[in-house]
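re: ur question from the group chat, yeah i did fold both. here u go
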Amino acid sequence: MRASLIQIAVDEDEPVGVRRRRVAALVREQAGADLVVLPELWTTGAFAFEEFGGAAEPLKGPTYEAMAEAAGAAGVWLHAGSVPERDPDGTLYNTSLVFTPAGDLAAAYRKIHRFGFDRGEAVLMGAGREPVTVRLPQLTLGLATCYDLRFPELFRALVDAGAGALVVPAGWPERRRAHWTLLARARAVEDQAFVLACGTAGSHAGVPQAGHSIVVDPWGEVLAEAGRDEEVLTVEFDPGAVARTREDFPALKDRVLGLAPPRR
C-alpha cells in the first residue's frame, strides 16, 4: 500500500482560496497512491483562533468541493485533513473529511479532544462524540486529530472497531515536537497498528509548527519521517503486517481493563 502525507506550509500571507487551489493541485499529483493525507486546519492554521468563526464552512463547503474533486481526479482515498465546520445550529467543530477515489464522502470525524484548556479551540468549538473508522480495501482506518493523540483510550476504541491504521492530521507546535514523535510511536506499539501522522510546516498565528510528519509500523519502527519544511512524504507499507504482528505478539488478547463486561 502506498500512502502520501502532504505536509503543507501555512503561510499567513497566502489567501485561503489560493492555498486551497494549491493543495488540490498537490493532491492531484499523487495519482498512483492508495491514500493521501493532509494536516489539521490547513485552511486557517490550528492556532489562528480568531479566524475560526469567519473561516468556518458548512460540511459541504468550498474545501469539501475542492477536495472531493481532487480525490476523484487523482483516484485516491483522501483524508483531507480538517476544516472549521459550522453546523446548521451554529456550533463550530474541527471536522475531518475522508473521500473515496470516486470523490464521494466516506466519513466525517469531529475532533473529540479539543486543545486549549480554557481558551482557543477548547472554548470556541464543540466536541465530537463518536470514534470513526473508514474501511478501505486494504485495511480499516481509525480517525483522530492532533490533541487526540494524547488520549490512548480513543485509539483503543478505534482498534476495537477494526482499525489497522491510525490516521492523525495535526497542527503540532515545534516546542512540543518530542511529544509528537513519542506519542505516535507509543500509539503504534500499544495498538499494534500503523500510525500515519501528518503535520504542518510554517507558522500558525505566530506559532512555529513542528512538521516531521511520520509513518510508524505496528512494531513502533519509523518507516518514514519528514523534515520541518513543506514536503510530500511517501511510503510503501504492507497492510498484512498488522495481522502478523498481532498474531506473533498477541498482547491485545491480554487486555483486562476497558473491555465491555461479559454478558450474563
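okk and heres the other one u asked abt
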Amino acid sequence: MTVETTPAIDAALARRLVDTQFPRWAGLPLRPFAPAGSDHVIYRLGEELSVRLPRHSGAIDQASKEAEWLPRLAPHLPLAIPVPVEVGEPDFGYPWRWSVSRWLDGEVATTDTDSHETATELAGFLTALHRFDAEATEDLAGRPLEARDTATRSAITEVGDSFDTVAMIELWDAALAVPHGGPPVLFHGDFHTGNLLTTEGRLSAVIDFGELGTGDPALDLIIAFTLMSAGTRATFRAALEVDDATWTRGRGWALATGLNAYVHYAAVSPRVAAQTTRQITQALVG
C-alpha cells in the first residue's frame, strides 16, 4: 500500500512561492488564516488576496477548476464568490498547483444566521447555480448517491447507538429508492455552513468550490440540514421548488456526508462532533 506523504507547508514556503512567481505582491504582508479547511492551508496576502495551498493529493485539481469556472459563474450568482486571480506552479519542493484569490470578508455562517430571509436567499443562489449552462464533462462528473452505499451502511454500524439505527437505515433505503433521473446540473458539492460567509448577520458570500461538479442537484440540499430549522427548511424547499424524490435524496446526502465526517473527525474535534450530530439528526427529522 502506498502511503501519501503530505508536503510540509509553512509561511516561509508560501512567501517564497508568491515572491518568486508573482513578484508584484512581494511587498504585501503574508499571515496564516485559521481555521483553514481540511483541504488547504490558507494565508492572507495583504488585505485583498488569499493564498491557498493544497494539503493533500485529493485537493490538487481545485486550483485549476476554480480558475476555469468561478470567473464564468460570478456574474450570474446573487452572492459573492472567491474569484481566482492567479494559479501558481509547483516549486521549492512543493509538488502541486496552488492559487491566489480575491479575499472575501465575513464571518462563517452559524445557526444564528438561520431565518426565512436566509433560506430564500440560499434557494435563489442554488436556483441560479443549478440553471447555469454547463456541459456535463467527464472532469466535472459527480458520483451518484448510490456510490456511497457501502461506506454509509458501514458508518451506520460503526456509530452504534449514537443515533437511531432503524431510522438511519429507513432513510438511506428511501433515498436510494429514488435515484436522480434528470439531466445533470452544476452543483457546489460542499454546500454547508462552513462555506457560507455573513456580514452583519446577512449572507454575503459562498466559498470553497473545490467539489464543484455536475450531477444530482439534491447534493446541495445538505445546507437545509446543517443550517436550518424545520420552519426555515419549509421556506427553502418551497422557494427552490423541490419535489419529494429530490428532497428525500437531499436527506440521504446529508445523512451520508454527516456520518462520514462524524466517523472520521468527531472523536478528535468537538466542533465537528456538534456540527455532524446536528446534521444527522436534522436529516432524520426531515
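fwiw on the second one: The domain at 108-285 is CATH 3.90.1200.10 (Aminoglycoside 3'-phosphotransferase; Chain: A, domain 2). The longest helix spans residues 244-265. idk if thats what u expected
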